[in-house]
């Protein structure tokens, strides 16, 4: 690999934001056809670096070269014209338009629709990314939406493809398909700059890795010759310990802290999935893990449990109280907390400070008001306690939520809920975009709350995570939940069967056999 010529070289790049140096004197090089990983903890500066390469952010100092010549893209348009393409973590697609129309919107000079549809088909076949140009994007899975973005990139014939955490929304099968495509591109000479927190994926896919810590390059590694643990420890600069499960406590009988019975609600989201007959119970001290591919009712389940969608009498009971008619604030009052997946917008108000965001959902239970007014010193104290306990990397609690790196905001949103002395916790994708050390800390915090007697529902696409922390396990599929089963003794085959698309009773019946 080392004989290949250098495509992009980053030399001594520094970029500072108020209060933080996001990249400090960063240098590395990517060779043609190389799959190069950019590794680092949350807030290490990975996104900032790729935004500079893509022309979205301007470096303060330092330089870049492209095939030996100066490269300083003033805008993404210039980067694209040079041969740089980027697939973002969050897709920017229009659900009410079809695939070809969406692709056309991202192009400088789109060809006539018929011709474009034919090219999309050709590229999708060539690279093994099945996609029908005439389908509405609203009907596509997350994996298929990502293919739209990738094909949009491939139509530009890029020399460097940047991917920012591409697998967090994919099923294991979709990851396989994506990796085959990326390997093919690399074999054809396209370089790939790959950001991910999933170290096993990095080991199987990448030829080289540059490791960032707090904005600085702290090392390089050959991912194939390193263990995931070694890579994680380079990122963190310390030794890692896996979460420990405290000994289970007997909370006195089969008392259900959260009881969901035949929950059926229509989805308020366009192209959403309605919940059909969802039934489960979680006892004090128990963690229920709900697996499934995003878009199968996870958001709706969270909305129905949080109180943003109301449900019929008796469908949701928390600590024995029927809460179906209650809104979020009332539910919080009785100790029912929740953290949605969408941390910007739903989980946090982007333009508000961390203090204001701490107040938003913590106000009721932490008693952050006095005589009907917000008690700002108390709210600040709460925000600062979250920052300290959850190691949120930020210059301070006055900072707006949107200025945090994705993973640090996630730590803040999860920490804010777990620090409210909850009785029932519902949490969607708790470690989404969070680095290995922080993910371990969040899982530990969930187990600790359970040990204190909370009933916990964790919704996640990360099977390993669920098997590590859950006591019982169920799968959400097209709005239906399989019967929860104890994690202990569950085999991969049984999980596969539950995940496999068969519904409800049928799966429970099959898995029992
Ligand atoms: N627009 C901005 N304004 C202020 N600070 C910012 C801005 N963008 C990033 N930062 C800060 O720069 C640092 C690096 O952030 P960056 O998003 O590059 O990290 P990252 O390695 O991509 O993290 P993650 O894995 O969590 O996505 C963080 O401390 C972040 O808070």
TrEMBL record:
Organism domain of life: Bacteria
Signal peptide interval: none
Membrane topology qualifier: Peripheral membrane protein
Keywords linked to the UniProt accession: ATP-binding, Cell membrane, Membrane, Nucleotide-binding, Repeat, Sugar transport, Translocase, Transport
GO cellular component: plasma membrane
One GO MF term: ATP hydrolysis activity
Predominant subcellular localization, coarse grouping: membrane
Pfam families referenced in this protein's UniProt entry, alphabetically: ABC_tran
Cellular location(s): Cell membrane
PROSITE patterns named in the record: ABC_TRANSPORTER_1, ABC_TRANSPORTER_2
Domain ABC transporter: 8-239, 258-503
UniProt-listed SUPFAM superfamilies: P-loop containing nucleoside triphosphate hydrolases
PANTHER family to which the protein is assigned, alphabetical: CARBOHYDRATE TRANSPORT ATP-BINDING PROTEIN MG119-RELATED, GUANOSINE IMPORT ATP-BINDING PROTEIN NUPO
Descriptive protein name: ABC transporter ATP-binding protein
Native source organism of the sequence: Tabrizicola oligotrophica
